[in-house]
Amino acid sequence: MKFLITGGAGFIGSAVIRYIINHTQDEVLNIDKLTYAGNLESLVEVENNKRYSFQQIDICDIAALEQVIAGFQPDIVMHLAAESHVDRSIDGPAAFIQTNIVGTYTLLEVIRKYWMALDSDKKARFRFHHISTDEVYGDLEGTTDLFTETTPYAPSSPYSASKASSDHLVRAWYRTYGLPTIVTNCSNNYGPYHFPEKLIPLVILNALEGKALPVYGNGQQIRDWLYVEDHARALYCVASQGKVGETYNIGGHNEKQNIEVVKTICALLDELSPRADQTAYASLITYVTDRPGHDLRYAIDAAKIAKELNWKPQETFETGIRKTIEWYLNNLQWCRRVQDGSYQRERLGVQS
After folding, report:
1. How far apart are CA 28 and CA 140, in angstroms?
2. Residue 324 DSSP symbol
3. Going by C-beta distance under 8 Å and a sequence separation of 6 or more, which residues neighbour residue 287?
């Protein structure tokens, strides 16, 4: 099959591309605007594979989208391009409205016209897979409730509101125009190549540098953690086997308080990379003012995807977080290039 993946230079998108190239015989075209969060260095291991290609394109650019889609003729579109950092959405929501809502609308319209012109066999096989987040559901008040595919939407931040809007657009294009869409909503991802502003890589790198480890509020916020490579497997499974018009929630079955995550990282770093003075990394933990509208608890019920598509995560949080820390310790050069901005400055000669 031919996969067109938007946002393929991002954290989750690059994991999906690495999975497809390394574990299938499918072809991938990656289109990415290459904002700060897009890093082609996350795709070095597949960039020379003949089944992989890249085009630098903004999903709001209709003409560019039409040209590349007409040339590539995808069987499946996996839409991951999005602004995704909650704190950034609070400081500057406009980019989230533009990319997540206007960009998704633009892509849907270009894809709809492409799909309508396909022959009957290819039209029947085509899929538009929209990748979203569990944050569209808001937060859970109880300690046992779980988000299901029918949980009402109640987004709390400009980020989650913009993703909720894009989900609604995708479902409307299925209902109104018959475009064969599938939606997935995932829990918090972590793993290799995660942008250093996110909680887990931020804590790892700050700890190694002897900097404060900032924890919002009292650190009691609960998230369901999903190892990114498990997520990549799930996304491929849904795109290739999922039922049109359906939604699948993807979770890691690993609910942890933020403070528990930070302390786990500190303990593993004490073991894997102890400080010269032998003091515990946990001594660097610093509590900071909570962010506005901070959701308390997310938790996914992933029973549907397990039952219907036979997917379950392979990593526990304990195995996944150890693999993640070991990867960062072995790939500090990748991290430093993100932190100092050189990964953006040296984009000359981008593959196309």
Report:
1. 37
2. H
3. 214, 215, 216, 217, 218, 219
Give catalytic residues, as residue numbers: 134-135, 159
First to last CA, the chain: 20
The answer to whether 222 and 256 are in contact (CB under 8 A) is yes
Domain ranges of the chain: 2-345
The answer to whether residues 68 and 43 touch, using CB atoms and an 8 Å cutoff, is no
Yes or no: say if 328 and 255 are a contact pair by the CB < 8 Å rule: no
Contact of 338 with 195, CB cutoff 8 Å: yes
The model's pLDDT over 195-244, given as tens digits with 9 standing for 90+, comes to 888 899 999 999 999 999 999 999 999 999 999 999 999 999 999 999 99
CA distances from 6 to 95, 100, 241, 321 (A): 17, 12, 20, 27
CATH class for domain 2-345?
Answer: alpha beta
pTM: 0.94
CA angle 40, 43, 49 (to 5 degrees): 120
List, as one string, the DSSP characters of 127-149.
Answer: EEEEEEEGGGG---SSSS--B-T
Q: pLDDT tens across 137-196, in order?
A: 998 876 678 999 999 999 999 999 999 999 999 999 999 999 999 999 999 999 999 988
Residues 263-278, mean pLDDT to the nearest whole number? 97
